[in-house]
Amino acid sequence: MLGLEMVVLLGIAIVACGALASRYPIAPAILLVVAGVLIGFAPSLRAAHLPPEVILLVFLPALLFWESLTTSLREIRNNLRVVVLTSTVLVVATAGAVATTAHHVLGMSWGPAWVLGAALAPTDATAVGVLARHLPRRTVTTLRAESLINDGTALVIYGLAVGVTVGEEVLTGWHVTWLVVLSYGGGLIAGALVGLLSWQIRRRMNDPMLEGIAIFVTPFAAFLAAEAIEASGVLAVVACGLFLSQVAPRITGAATRHLVVPFWSLSTTMLSSALFVLIGLEAQSAFRALSSTTMARALLDTLLVAAVVIGVRWVWTYTTPYLIRAVDRRPVQRERRVSARQRTVTATAGFRGAVSLAAILAVPRTVDSGAPFPDRDLIVLIACGVIMLSLLQALLLPAIVRFARLPSDTSVDEEIQLAEVLTLDAAIEAIDDTATELGVGEIVTTRVRHELDKQRRLVEATGADGDPLVEHHDQYTSLSLALLARRREALVQLRDERRIDDIVLRQVQARLDIEEIRFSRPTLPE
């Protein structure tokens, strides 16, 4: 029954925290972490722990796949240098700084110190996603790309540190080089091959349900394929998702998207929310299980490590851009420079989350000799505390965004309008030839041309206050939605009077829903 109780509590916590976050200016992730801490006070629920394998094999592939599918590959290419540096050099620098602090200040041996540093080095793609509504596209994409790729670097360091500590690995230059090459190269190849296979299979499907199942299986297949050759499953999922984001629009039909997009949106929201609750639960559990040092000393250690993790990112943000500017003075790079004030957002957005939690919970309890893993309880406590403290930075984000004075980003709205205009122009140009091919009569062709012309003029009128065409469209939409509500009421009444069956109600209701979504969806940029 414990599992069922946790499912109910998780659902209640997610709904309650979401409602509070929509009412008050607090990031949902922070409220969910607090909810996890509160759940941990219930003695009967303290035994509820999610195995780290579940996070690595179920949560991460799904979350990273959806983030990869919904990010901008064009922006990643445009900011590739920044993404590569932050996902490799910054990760190593953060892990090294934390390890050095843990060794010289906290008194850990080098092996456990590097385990702690590697676990806390990568940022979290899920936590970064909450910023998308407040930041320009370039900033959001860079942060997402960094958090998608840096997991591979961190997990290589983590695997080496754990292996050396338990006695399974021998640290040599060639061995480290091979592991890095295998992790990155193998992960990218595995992800590309699985993505290619998924593309070839899905292009031959015409059943939306079967194609939806194929999409669901894809990230897990990519992860397992990479893990089978001891490469990075995280990078495999990311590579697979980015590849499919480019080819899927050519093969995926509207019915499949109508089925898949809501499913993935709901599923990933549930998974990411559950992870934040789990962070709070594990943090409290780590406090209770602490035995190697005093609570006061552990809290001070946590604050120190959190300061190092956050401080390294701030130092990186305000040093490397100037070094790059000194080397690269090309005009195209000068145009992409941002001010020191604007970089405060990037410096603050170094949230830690799912990968850090999974890595730290996966630390073995014993080494090869049978002795306990050194300082494991302290490592788990510090990691959970740092994750929570890094998420608290979200409280400062609204103020920091205002301080940064980020330029208004209208590029998305402009490109939406461009796409609407050009696609409508293509349809208008092709209407005569298409009508001839299909044998459509002149009356129908004229009607369709009139509707397309109206949509074309409506798109061009975007942003024009008081435009009669826009006002007419708004009134038309309002009236149509009101009449759809009356039709739905009449439909339910027919069912209640037993004049139609529930099956008929659902089928007609589905058609009305499609009409309502079509009218409710903002056809013009907000």
UniProtKB/TrEMBL annotation:
Chain ranges passing through the membrane: 6-22, 54-70, 82-102, 114-136, 148-166, 178-197, 209-226, 232-251, 263-283, 303-324, 345-363, 378-401
Record keywords: Antiport, Cell membrane, Ion transport, Membrane, Sodium, Sodium transport, Transmembrane, Transmembrane helix, Transport
Gene Ontology terms for molecular function: potassium:proton antiporter activity; sodium:proton antiporter activity
GO BP term, example: regulation of intracellular pH
Domain named Cation/H+ exchanger transmembrane: residues: 14-401
InterPro entries, per the entry: Cation/H_exchanger_CPA1, Cation/H_exchanger_CPA1_bac, Cation/H_exchanger_TM
Entries under Gene3D superfamilies matching the protein: 6.10.140.1330
Subcellular location: Cell membrane
GO cellular component: plasma membrane
Superkingdom classification of source: Bacteria
Secretion signal span: none
Membrane topology field: Multi-pass membrane protein
A matching Pfam family: Na_H_Exchanger
UniProt similarity note: Belongs to the monovalent cation:proton antiporter 1 (CPA1) transporter (TC 2.A.36) family.
Functional description taken from the UniProt entry: Na(+)/H(+) antiporter that extrudes sodium in exchange for external protons.
Name the record gives this protein: Na+/H+ antiporter
